[in-house]
Amino acid sequence: MKRVLRNPGNLLVVLGCAAATIAYVLDAQARSRSIENLAFIVPLAVAVLALCLLVLFTQQEPAENAKTKGAEKPRGGAANAALPYYCFGAFVAYVLSIPHLGFDVANMIFVALFVWLQSRRQPLRALLFGLVFGLGAAWVFQTILPYRLPMTLL
Predict the structure, then answer these.
(1) What is the DSSP secondary structure assignment for residue 21, as one 8-state letter?
(2) Distance of alpha carbon 34 from alpha carbon 151, whole angstroms
(3) Maximum CA extent, the chain
């Protein structure tokens, strides 16, 4: 528990996100309990709450503590500063390509590209993760939604 309370600012932001997610799900459920209306909301809320828990319990030490222990300084630079813009551009391309490539193929390409950008250009890991997660997520959404998504492989 000491690790969670190390940085109260992070704790407040994560608890605020979790509280807003829970309030939104409760409000959506109070307005309509049909499966079709909650098919996107509940899985996304579970994922957000799981990420909140992950952030709470995997916080790194603050930078000033890392410096005093002789840890290596993290590498910065223009490439790291531009990464959010690359990821946002990839997301826009993903959304625009769904009608043309299909949800499953667009999902695989986006996930592989995103993992490649995040994992220091390891192409095998990015391709495998894109294939497994992209097809898996497309299959899950296809089974839980009452209407057909545009697919190429599935």
Answers:
(1) H
(2) 25
(3) 56
